[in-house]
């Protein structure tokens, strides 16, 4: 039986072998914008000198003394832009904590782990960054806030290397954290988490393909609906809750529980309107007036019937020649829609809609 520690090691190795440092390089290469600003306001030589000095600053840790004499050994070049296009965050900077966090966030977003856990088994006092990573929600949300703050310093449409990777990783990490906590996620987050473009996911939703998630009127996707999309892709379910709660780095005895033989999941066919909304137990429940109980309203205008039980309302819809029901619009007003097709949905997914 495979242990959680072994599973962590496998994922860590896969991450380390495939990681291309794009988010980290994206934190330093866009700083070339400083040179562009200086050159536009002063002249090329001044920009070359400034960018030459800036590389020296970025490679020196705050606790270390600046050795300005190193600048005398190399003449600034007017081709500094080419140098900054190839700058290596890991080797050419003192590697600040923000880069370490960006590195770890990628592992969380796509592998469901944090690499800093590999140091938990070591003796001695642990650095604060490793201790912080034990509170995964705080670590992830704090890192996302830090990185999105960095992104906000650039104008919309900026195409500096690494900025898109930072944004995508932040979306994927935010989506995974919500999904792990059984919270609905956005279309952009699910696209990033499943490593497809938002356009591809949107096309699947519009085409109403078999594995396409159902998007509620508020633009969110319920966890059960997201699961049907993720399971058909190379998604690695998170192990952080089990790994940390069992302190798996202390023992190899924390085995991954074998999958139980699950009972066949129940599926139902529910009507779906032209706008993509379906007849759902939560979304279509009308609160009712003070003298009424919450209920579902089905049928054409003037022929409407109210049902307090969702199952009864759904059964009644199946007997109608043209099923119609009331559901809230963007303003919260319940209007009548007509079935365009019947959609097969799992009972668990339907319970969240």
Task: Please name the defining characteristics of this protein.
3 domains; single chain; two-stranded antiparallel ribbon; elongated; mainly alpha; 353 residues; three-stranded antiparallel sheet
Q: How would you describe this structure to a colleague?
A:
- The chain has 353 residues and is mostly helical.
- It has 3 domains: 169 residues, no CATH class; 58 residues, no CATH class; 84 residues, no CATH class.
- It is built from 16 helices and 7 strands.
- The strands form 3 sheets. Strands 3-7-6 form a 3-stranded antiparallel β-sheet. Strands 1-2 form a two-stranded antiparallel ribbon.
- Helix 7 packs across helix 10 and helix 10 crosses helix 11.
- It is elongated and about 90 Å long.
- The protein starts with a helix and ends with a helix.
Distance between the termini: 37 Å
Cα-based radius of gyration, to the nearest Å: 27 Å
> Which class of secondary structure composition applies to the elements?
mainly alpha
Helix content: 40-55%
Strand order of the largest sheet: 3-7-6
Unreliable parts = none
Largest sheet: 3 strands, antiparallel
Shape: elongated
Mean pLDDT: 88
Topology:
Layout: H1 4-18, H2 22-25, H3 32-41, H4 44-58, H5 80-85, H6 89-92, H7 97-111, H8 128-132, H9 136-151, H10 163-180, E1 185-186, H11 187-193, H12 198-207, E2 220-221, H13 223-230, H14 240-245, E3 267-273, E4 296-298, E5 305-307, H15 310-318, E6 324-328, E7 334-346, H16 347-350
Antiparallel strand pairs: 1-2, 3-7, 4-5, 6-7
Helix pairs in contact: 3-4, 7-9, 7-10, 9-10, 10-11, 11-12
